[in-house]
Predict the 3D structure of the following.
Amino acid sequence: MATTLLLEAGIAFTVLAAAGALAWRIGQSVIPAYLLAGIAVGPYAPEVWGVSLTLVERSEFIDLFAELGVVFLLFFIGVEFSVAKLLAEPRRIVAAGGVDLVVNVALGVVLGLAFGLSLLEALFVAGIVYPSSSAVITKSLIDLGWIADPESEAILGVLVVEDVVMAVYLALLAALAIGGPLSAALLPLGESLLFLLLFALLATVGSGLVERAFDTRSNELFLLRVVGLTALLAGFALTTGVSEAVAAFFVGAAISESDLKPRLEDVIAPARDLFAAVFFFAIGLGADPGAVAGVLPLLAAGVALAVVGKLASGYVGGRAYDLNERRSVRMALAMVTRGEFSLVVAAIAAGTAAVSPAIPAFAVGYVLVMSILGTVLMGASGRVEGLVGVGLDESGS
């Protein structure tokens, strides 16, 4: 068993290295390359002349590395983010996040009902359509160098709103899925909100404590402390029903104003990129082209509606956040990407007898298409800005 896992790990990392090199050579983001690599060698890989191309199964090491990928992508976003600044101007983030919520949840419900699904199934579709991908967007912001730009703050603020909304939504959806009363979701929902509050307090008043916990002269011990403490708190959050990504975000935010930021980039960033590559690879491994082909009409309609919805809500949200036209266009393009929360909703749907098996298949195809399309749009932002005739103002904001 250990030999098989080690061999699969070697194959996975080699395939990722080759896919990433190809993406760099043609000047594209590595994210679509990692996703497609997972499809090409995963459990649903095609047969060529009667020989299966499947080289990697979805194993425990893949799942663990993928989880760590989400955790450390969001940890680094927290490092670049100021929770105090976000809380100091709640009007802007509530406006941008509110537009995002109303537009995209409504489109998801309409999509489900238009295809003859029940109201419960339409709520599942809405949960798949609504949230953008924190992990994919974070990776793209870093790769494109947008992380220090004004639109990054607005994008991350809306993603935080989405994560909080999804924490509530998933608790309610799980209660509805098992046929229980909504009151059954109140206790886990209350626990989730309590821990979110504790993590937010850690980010705002516990920065000194976290900085002291990470501070050491040894880079080796520094790496172990950051990975260990971040994974520990994220895992603890997950057991209480809070998103591990949200927890990691707040841990990163707790040291956002410290002197450790440059060292984090030097020492921890390589581990982040390694874990993140496996996360995108894992999405590809779980994509069954056959099942997705069975829901093509729903998928095509979902993609079309979702692109329009996120472009519109992202642009309006950017303007509500006081961004100029160019920055608002960038925000709109970034929000198109979907990812991890959509797959969580799909997993709940797959375990619910009252929900059509078409919905999990739709979610996998939807995440695959939207994650690739979103990263391509972000990479092509310069051309899009030129097409719509927007540019920097005198202040560059």
